[in-house]
Amino acid sequence: MIKILVAVDGSENSNRAVDYVLRLAQISCVLLEAHVLNVQAPVSFGDIKKFVGQEALNAYYHDEGAKALVSVRQQLDKSSVAHNYHIGVGQVPETIVNYAHEHGCAQIVMGTRGLSSVSSLLLGSVASKVLHLTDIPVTFVK
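Above: the chain's sequence. Below: its structure in token form.
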């Protein structure tokens, strides 16, 4: 079974990345397992943990990640492709690459641009950085 990491952020491009993996699974003679990852950037308002607590921050990260996974969960849950979901917290490109390495993923699939207005420049800052950080094949879906 080949493991493919699909990085999603709730954008249309990330939904199309999931569509791509589902089509790939249909035409492939090898079984695929999709690892769907949403990464939440850490809240950085100084020492906010003192005021809201780590438990509240974790709940926030979980809720935001769950929102980003809603549409792709619907796509994948209807399919016959083996899949699992994960919400990570950290610097987005580094977290994507680390997850792929730690879980033995053979490929990373992601949209060219995400929800951030800053990432709409050229290829997208997250996509570009992932490409530079990893030796795993990366497929960008527009």
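The radius of gyration is 15 Å.
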